[in-house]
C-alpha cells in the first residue's frame, strides 16, 4: 500500500482484497511449501498392508492443517452472515461532525456488514427468537469505523460488568447445555426477574422484532448515545439508525419454529440469493441529534442504553444510504475472521459515559485476541484499513507486515521522529474534552432507575395483533420455565408495565394473576409499530402450484405480471422436471411438494390444472400448502382450478385471499403481497 492519500470509492476495499484471492481451479496440487504432490489418496506405508510411515510429510501436513481448521466461535453472535457493500451520503454532516466519510456526498465508502443471531452456536438455526446483530465496518480514508449495532434500540443491561451474567443466563444451561439458541428456560427468566433493568429489551425480544422475515427487512440501531464532534470542537449527542427500504417485517412464531427445521439457513440464504439476483438490499442511515445543552431535558437519562429517544420527540434525520451488493468469496476468510470493535472510531465520532458502551470498549479487542490468535488480526484482509497504517507496534503471532529499518520506538532521532503523530487540526484523533469530576464510586445514577415507563410506551404503541403476539411469546417463553417461582416473579415484574398483559400471561402459564396498577404512561410512539412500516411487494417470494394441463397462456401472463412488480416465484408440482400446460408450454419445476414447504414463501398462488382436484396426492399436498399459508396470515392467490381449494376450505372472500374471478387478479394479488400479512383474517 503506498503512502499516498488513499482514494476511497465503493470498490477500493474490493481492489485491496483481490490481491489476496487465489483460484485453485485448473492448478497443479502442491504442498504448502509449493512441492508438487504425486498422490493425494494414499499415505506412505511400509509394504502394501503395512504401517504408515512418519516420513510421509504430505500426509502429516494435510491432516495437521485439518486438525487446526477451527477457531473459537464468537462467545456471542456466533452465527452470522457477512456481505460487502457501500455507503453513500445524501448531505454533508459538516455542521455536526468532522468525520471525513460524512462530509462529501460524492464519496462512496466501502463497507462490510455482518448480521447475526446472538445466543445460538455457529450451527444453530436462523429463525430463533433472538436479537439480531447488524455490525458495519466502514473502510474510510481515516481508518476503519465500526458501528456494531443490533436490530433493537435498547439493551438488557445498563453496565458492561453485567454482560457475562446476562450471557451466562441466556446461553444453554451449563449442567446439560440445553436449550440451544433459546431464551425459553429457567436461568434466562430468573435473570430477567432479578435484574429488572432488562424489562425494556425483553419486551422487544417478545415482540415480532425478534423473528425478522429477512435481514433485508429489519432496522439497525447503534443503541448507545455517541458524540458527533465538528471541526470547531463543538459536540452533539447522536444516536444511529439503519432503516430498511423494504420495510420492517417479521415471521409468525409457528412459522419461525417450522423454518428452523425445514431451512435453518433461511435468513442467510435469503440475503445471499437477493444479492446474487441483483436485488441489492438498501438501508437508509438516520441520526437523532440532541444538543449538549439539552442533556437533561428528557424524562429519561440519555446515557441509559435501556432507553430510546422517541422519534416523535427527537426526529430521525436521514443522511445516507447503505447498499449491500456483493457476497463474500470465502466465508471463513471474510465473515468468520472479521473483527468488529465499537472503539474503532474516526475523528468526529466519540463516546459518551454510557457505562455499557465503556464496558464494550474493553471487551471486543480482548475477545479478538483469543478468537483470532493474537494482536495482528488487523492484518487479516477483511480487517485491513484501506488507508495506510504506520506505528511502532511489532511482532506477535502471524505478523505479516515486514517493517523495515532499525527504529521501532518513539521519540527517536534516527528516523527523524517518524512515524510522526498528527496534530488534531490536521486530522489526528483527539478525545473530546468532556469535563468530568467525582469520587471513585460503585454506584449508578438514580436517573437510570425507571425500568418500566418506556416499556409501557412500547406496549401502548403496538397494534392489537402485535400485542397478542407479545402475550403469546411471553406465554410460550415463561411457560417453558420449570420453576413456578420464577414464572410468578416474571408476571409480577411485568405487572409494573401493564396489568392486563401480566394477567393474561399469568392465566396462560398457571400462576397467580398479579395485582398492582401498571405504569401510568399513556403516550404511544407510532414509529415503534411495524404496522406503520413501509410496504412493498418487491423481492417477495411466491410459491406457484401447477399441475400438468394448466392454462399456460393465462398463467404465464400472470407470472409475468408478478415479475414486473419485482416479485420472484418458484414453481411447485408433484414431480420434478417440467410441468406442461394445455398448449404444450413447459415450465421448469423448481420444487416438489416435499423439497419445499409453504413456510418458505411469502405467498402461495394455486392454479392446479388437469386432474389436480381429483389426484389424491396433489390434492392433499395443495390443501396443506393453502391451509398452512392461511394460518400464517399469508396472501393466497387462486385462479383456474385453484379456486376449488379456496371453496373447499371456506377461504373465499377472506382478507388477503384473492381469486381469479376478479378482473384484475394480478393487481389485487400484488396488493395483498405488499401488505405482507393479513392480520384481520380470522385464523382458528
Ligand atoms: Fe457485543 C459481538 C452488538 C453489548 C461483548 N456485539 C457483538 C456483535 C454485535 C454486538 C452485533 C457481533 C459482531 C460481529 O458480527 O462480529 N453488543 C452489541 C450491542 C451491544 C453489545 C449492540 C449493546 C448496545 N457486547 C456488549 C457488551 C459486551 C459485548 C456490554 C461486553 C462487555 N460483543 C461482545 C464480544 C463480542 C460481541 C464478546 C463477541 C464476538 C466479538 O465481540 O467479536 O466482545
Automatic annotation (TrEMBL):
It is an enzyme of class 1 (oxidoreductase). One of its GO terms (biological process) is hydrogen peroxide catabolic process. One of its GO terms (cellular component) is cytosol. The keyword Ubl conjugation does not apply. Its cofactor is heme. Residues 30-418 form the Catalase core domain. Residues 28-42 have a biased composition (Polar residues). It catalyses: 2 H2O2 = O2 + 2 H2O. Heme binds at residues 74, 114, 163, 360, 364, 371. The active site is at residues 77, 150. The keyword Transmembrane does not apply. PROSITE patterns: CATALASE_1 (PS00437), CATALASE_2 (PS00438), CATALASE_3 (PS51402). It comes from the Bacteria. There is a cross-link at residues 341-364 (3'-histidyl-3-tyrosine (His-Tyr)). Keywords: Heme, Hydrogen peroxide, Iron, Metal-binding, Oxidoreductase, Peroxidase. GO terms for molecular function: catalase activity; heme binding; metal ion binding. Residues 15-27 have a biased composition (Basic and acidic residues). Residues 1-46 are annotated as: Disordered. Belongs to the catalase family. HPII subfamily. Decomposes hydrogen peroxide into water and oxygen; serves to protect cells from the toxic effects of hydrogen peroxide. PANTHER family: CATALASE, CATALASE-B. This is Catalase. It comes from Virgibacillus profundi.
